[in-house]
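Morning. Coffee machine broken again, so started the prediction first thing and wrote up yesterday's gels while waiting. Chain of 290 residues, entered below exactly as on the submission form.
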Amino acid sequence: MKKIGLIGTGMLGKAVGMHLLKSGYSLVAYNRTKDKTKELEINGAEIADSPKDVALKSDVVITVVKDAEAVKKISFEKDGIIFGNHEGLVVCDMSTINPIESKKIFEKFRENNLIMLDTPVMGGPNVAITGDLVMMASGNKGTFDDCKKLFETIANKVFYLGENGTAHTVKLAMNLQITMLALALSEGITLSRGANIDPKVFLEILNSTYFKTGMSENKAFKMIQDKFDATFTLDNLKKDINTISETSKSFGVNLPMTEKAKEIYDNAVKEGFGNLDYTGILAYIKKLNE
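Came back before lunch.
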């Protein structure tokens, strides 16, 4: 069984780490804010002092950090992953980042004789803790095959998508769906309330049709109770929308609804809603109507 390193123990990273420990893997973890590694340590993880130390003690290093700049910092700057390189080490990036930047990171790892796979996932901590994420993977096929058992522990569905950068592109396309679905649900609820219709009626009818989603069947009923406990914050989704916008422009693609959504989520964060779950966009729209 491979020795796993984990860099980034926020909500998602910690849940992935906890599941790996429960599945029998040995785990060494690092987080810039050490307090966020405590639960993993209590459950048997070794806590490292740097990304370099994680790399030295691991066969596979999983990175789950905020953005491409954070990936570069933990990988290539002082005491970064490359300084703990050894034969057979593989880096798997589970962050949500610009695919063009991901390709640059892959090339820099290759220059340092390291293999990197893109391994972003769909699903939050609530499904990561049970190994029920959906993983998109891209990069060297032989390395992917060698790590497949690990990936199938982390996720209940794993899609291999080809060359580096592909998985991160698809991940952004998936987060674009989250963006629009949360807005559509929020405005449907708001319209129903404006007409003095119980939004539960709207949701029950929606969920009886072809247009239902996991969000409308699950999170929406918490939304109408103003319950926005974060599994993925509005601020993090706003960050991803910015990345989608940047990426689309790099590809020469015009995404008009993305640009409008970017404006709405930016304003919601400025108004103080950033720490809510991303479905808290409903709370922002509610405020607009007061």
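The longest strand covers residues 155-160. Going to sketch it on the whiteboard this afternoon.
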